[in-house]
Amino acid sequence: MKLEAGQVAVITGAANGIGQALAGALHARGLRVVLADIEEDSVRRAAAELGGETLAVPTDVADPAQVQRLAEATVERFGRVDLVANNAGVGAGGAMWSIEPEDWQRVWSVNVGGIVNGIRAFVPHLIASGHGHVVNTASIAGFTFGAFNAPYTASKHAVISLSESLRGELDILAPEIGVTVMCPGPVDTRMLRGVTDGASADARTEWLASFTPEQWERFAPRMEIIKRMQDEMMPATEAAEIIIRAVETNRLYVTTHPHYAEAAKSRAELVVAGLAEAN
């Protein structure tokens, strides 16, 4: 979909990180932008900084009624919607059996439920208008696997599957609507900083601080991965431009760090080899 001045874009998780950067990049192209986030003061401030034709709508994407009101507010203010970026996300770390049920639930209700709610609220508007595009933010973690990050990783696998299913359904019912699943590698956001800073020697999170020396030795290779992520962090503004190019070229899969595709390939090869093995 060609992005043009006057179109309307809705971005969730828009108070910071990739969402805020995407809102800024689209606004700079002349789009009217609706910023949604659970952090009311921050999302209003982000919209005010952009100025012009913007709208801030405090929204908890885990609540279907709030996302429906977001859609209604968008159409009431601007009369249309062209691009929807379901970008809000949260995480929870630790051994999966030690993560509290409410933390599991929150990750899934935001990362997966938030996208389902966005699809239900906005896709009918796109279909009715005969054009549009949906962007769902997953993660390169959705193609791989990682210990001590199970709620987040599993939810991002689900986001990729949801996006593939959405693309398949729209290809039949409304082929003029595009779908992109954004799978970022390390992007300089508050969420990733929380991971990398929490793993530092002087600020370890509670679950990391509980490791024995032997466990630390076994965990050491993963610390190298975290360090590499710190070294490879991309500015959120660059990630936003990658998303825009993916929308305009109707790419289904896109990432900020193409070399991470090798990790996805390795996992896929393990899966295929395991399934193909004779019983």
TrEMBL record:
SUPFAM superfamilies: NAD(P)-binding Rossmann-fold domains (SSF51735). GO terms for molecular function: oxidoreductase activity. It comes from the Bacteria. Residues 7-190 form the Ketoreductase domain. Keywords: NADP, Oxidoreductase. InterPro entries: KR_dom, NAD(P)-bd_dom_sf, Sc_DH/Rdtase_CS, SDR_fam. Pfam families: adh_short. Belongs to the short-chain dehydrogenases/reductases (SDR) family. PANTHER family: DEHYDROGENASE_REDUCTASE SDR FAMILY PROTEIN 7-LIKE, RETINOL DEHYDROGENASE-RELATED. This is SDR family NAD(P)-dependent oxidoreductase. The lineage of its organism: Bacteria, Bacillati, Actinomycetota, Actinomycetes, Mycobacteriales.
